[in-house]
Amino acid sequence: MIRMIAARLASSALSIVILVTLVFFMAHLTPGGPAYSILGMKATAASVAQLNARLGLDAPLWRQYAIWWWHLLHGQLGYSYLLNRPVGQLLWRYELNTLVFYSASIVTSIVLSIGVGLLQGVYDGRWPAKLIGGLQLGFYALPPFFVAAMLVLWFAVQLRLLPASGITDLRLGHPGIGSYAAHLVLPVTTVTLLTTAALSRYFGEAVREELGRDYVRTARAKGVAFPAILFFHVLRNALRPLVTMIGLSFPYIFTGGVIVESVFNYPGLGWLMWRSALSQDYPILIAIVLIIGLLTVIGNLLADLVNGLLDPRASYE
Amino acid sequence: MSDRILAPPPGLPAAPLGRAIAWMTRRPTLAVGLCLAGLILFIGFIAPFLYPPDPFAIHPDHALEPPSWAFPLGTDELGRDELGLLLSGGLATMVVALPAAVLAFVTGIAYGLAAGLGPTWADRLMMRLLDAILALPSLIVLIFFAALVTLNDTSLILLLGLISWPGLARLVRNETRAQRGRDFVLAAEQMGAGRFYIARAHLLRVMAPVLVVNGTFMIGDAIFALSALSFLGLGVQPPQVSWGSLLESGLNLIALDPWWLILPPGLLVFMSLLAASLTGQGLLRRWEPGR
Q1: What is the complex's ipTM, to 2 decimals?
Q2: If phi over 0 gives left and psi between -120 and 50 gives alpha, with beta otherwise, what is residue B51?
Q3: Which end of chain A is more exposed for a tag (fewer CB within 10 A), N or C?
Q4: Please, which residues 21-50 of chain A have a Cβ atom closer than 8 Å to chain B?
Q5: Within a domain: B35
Q6: pTM for this one?
Q7: Are B100 and B90 in contact, with CB atoms under 8 Å apart?
């Protein structure tokens, strides 16, 4: 187990090094460099050269690369071009909103997926499973911007049940937890619907597979009640692929997040990334890309570790 | 003897229409997927030329009207005919998404074959690089680069095409590694076949079903990615419109409840994705019934 963790950590570290390098060179592929995005496309050559000298962009590439690593390792992510504030500080403000939004979406998605997947596995081959399968295919093909727009249209504009955008009601002096929760309902519903469509499909497949195994037959033969088999044996084994999927879908939930946060004007990391892309604020873009890469690597690592705990055999594979 | 082979198998009606219906009922997923795909291709490529009104003509006295006889799908805030805009937007979407999918398809196969057939050290290096690229969701990378470049049809095709291939590349590489030690490949090598010949004549042929299924999915992915980018204002640029940007401009007016500006473009993107997903699933089930 410890050897596996060490091996996975080393491989994750290597992935992060490659990722950081990739992101650095991605940013330096910019035609004209960042000076043009700060000064505008009509900037004179002299003013561009001056700015490049001031920002240290005239140094050789390898030197810039080394400096960049040095700063990264000291937790410095640079300054936002437009807001002229440290990127790290800016990110923290948005990070918290995203964290609330995601944890709510992921928890509801997991609970729903387990329920739907169990139903699908138990009713395999009969109409409930077929209905669920059809719904999964349909929901899986739904673009997040469409779902979000329709939910706003129905529940915020036509029925006036829920707020359409933002994070709290600005008209209230002290937005209570209720206002905060009401603003989260539609974004969380959007992400949950789409994530559940994908997760429950994998989980349902795993449940179906586990139900066909010998240990289930043995347990039934010796008279164990079916719910006990389902919840104590099958669930535990079928959770493994689900855990892997959750680890893998970490960054993809974020992707959906960019679109959903932009529809709902929800000030999270996705929204910040969108605004920064529109205004070409590279330091922020680079920082967010790095964070997502790190999240992915960490997500995969966590999934492997949890699987090692769920099934000790996995750590020897 | 030949008569018996040519005759339809028992249980299948002889008439072409009846046979088609029988074929469809046996493979509902594939049939629905193909029908939807045909419909979307018709809307994207043929319908824009069958619908005469100029989509960009402005009718200020008819701004933001719900569907009527004159404007079958209503008008936007400038009084432009929404149906015409949708058809024009469909063409703009297809013209970028389809070539991009082809580019990603070819790049992915080439990279996967190169890694799978190359020496071990090259394979390791290429796969490590792939892992690092795959660590980022493609939409994030797309947004990043879309912010860097000047956006037009060509740059969008290159952007989408050069970013959405790593998944396929990994698949092709794994499949190549798996097939490489099999007898028919070894026999071909013994007979002096070069790597290119083996790749073209044997490996690609064995992988054809997997490739076609994934190519179908990639078309859906490209349409989604382009629509998402356009929705975020980082795809097809004005004055051109696309399904994504039309939905976005409808959303900007959402307080006025303009359902006719939001439902149709969203439905069209949804139908395209459904078409790709169902066709791919249907083909997968047909070629690999065990899955």
Answers
A1: 0.87
A2: beta
A3: C
A4: 22, 26, 29-31
A5: no
A6: 0.88
A7: no
